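Sync notes, pocket subgroup
Present: LS, DG
LS reminded everyone that the earlier model was apo-only. Rerun requested with GDP-alpha-D-glucose included. Inputs:
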Amino acid sequence: MGRLFVVSNRVAQPGGVQIGGLATALQTVLREQRGVWVGWSGKYGEGPPHIHIGEGIRYCTLDIPKPDFNAYYHHFANRTLWPLFHYRVDLVDYRREAYEGYRDVNKRFAHVLAQELRPDDVVWVHDYHLIPLAHEMRKLGLAQRIGFFLHIPMPSWDVLSMLPGHEELLGLLADYDLVGLQTVGDMENFRGYLQAIGKHHPRCELATFPIGIDAQAVAQVAAAPAALSAADELKASLSGKRLAIGVDRLDYSKGLPERFRAFARHLEHRKARREPLTYLQIAPTTREAVPEYQTLRKELEGLAGHINGLHARPDWTPIRYVNHSYPHSILTGFYRAADLALVTPLRDGMNLVAKEYVASQDASDPGVLVLSRMAGAADALPEALLVNPHDVDDVANAIDTAVSMPASERRQRWEAMMDNLRRHDIKRWASDFLERLRRSTHGDGHAGGSTADAQPTAREDDSPPRKLALASIGDAHLSTKNAINI
Ligand code: GDG
């Protein structure tokens, strides 16, 4: 069996920034399969790739000149594709030169892979930063099996078609042997899109692989002394009040202003005035160079100040709003201390926080998950209190329901969710994807020859979602203070 190559914008090197479950899972698979992890080095510049071997994995990282990186990452990936794929067409900023920079950086990645790959290797590409990569690799004559996994939502045709040149860009996905999506809805959107643009038979297979977490590992960390003492300290600071928690990168897709407003609405309810609830929102900053993130930060600061000013009492502050990031050992303790979690993104490919919250709970006294219907995780966790994140009353009422839910119902819901998380964990996600990629038919068409001869025979997967994981591997800006996973 050939080696496995994982390609993502960033790589998780041992001893580097904080490691999440996704990074750990990929590292495990890479170790088992004599793997190579390819990504940006984190440095600007030109020159040959850096090779580093760590814990059985070969890391191959490339420097990228700053102007190219700005065009590729800051602009096209995060100011064009990210808002588009999250249905925020109002925020899409398309510039042709940024698209060209994005294509150039993908070419750089392809050249590095061309130097490294052997004929029987398999390549697994991650996320929207690298959509054109297989195409660039095919142009260099690389015939290996190449799979792509999209971590974010795949929107419908009417949204995708607003992107200038969408047919060219999204058409390039057909150069992969396998395109994996988070949910059946994402897959149907992409299939509908392909039909609308007249590509009824993509040469690649489409399938859903809902990402999971290492539920057992998260549960163990949450029950370990570091987490338990973090939970105790947090509870002690609440003076007997109940706690709601939110943990999200500071990103407009996560629905934070809407959530703050919904919490304010809850505070107006009579019962809430009798038994006040404290809401802890942890929101580490990311992509700080992108203006929309700066605007969001200001908006949240204003909202938190306003809501606190309106409702706080001398001995109680309703919203504790924190921009720092915390190690997972502490975060799981915070999850465990919270009576409910508010996971209300406006759109989310999956949302791992929802799953981590569930896995961190004490089985005898679990908390309640309030979850957006717009998150991929809602497919796998129907026992959560599902809400429309745009509807402040719906979310405020769900908070009331969560606070008054009897212990027996909380346990029943939690057990069903936990069962799902255990059965569909991150290891299974990775092995399902790789197994499917290795047996993909089109790869045989490529092997050792030109891709032009490969017959397009679509095989789309309608199987129900395999449920349910930890971290984004795309984010480049992980300052030492606010690092999120990798
Ligand atoms: C993309 C897709 C999809 C957060 N704060 C801290 C911290 N985190 C960790 C969480 C979680 C991860 O970051 C966030 O994962 P999400 O899934 O919630 O969201 P994205 O970053 O947007 O990820 C998403 C995911 O890819 C995987 O496919 O689910 O839909 O958008 O693991 O715990 N980690 C630490 N400290 C923090 O303060 N250590």
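DG: The chain has two domains: 4-212+425-453, 216-423.
LS: The longest strand covers residues 36-44.
Action: DG to write up.
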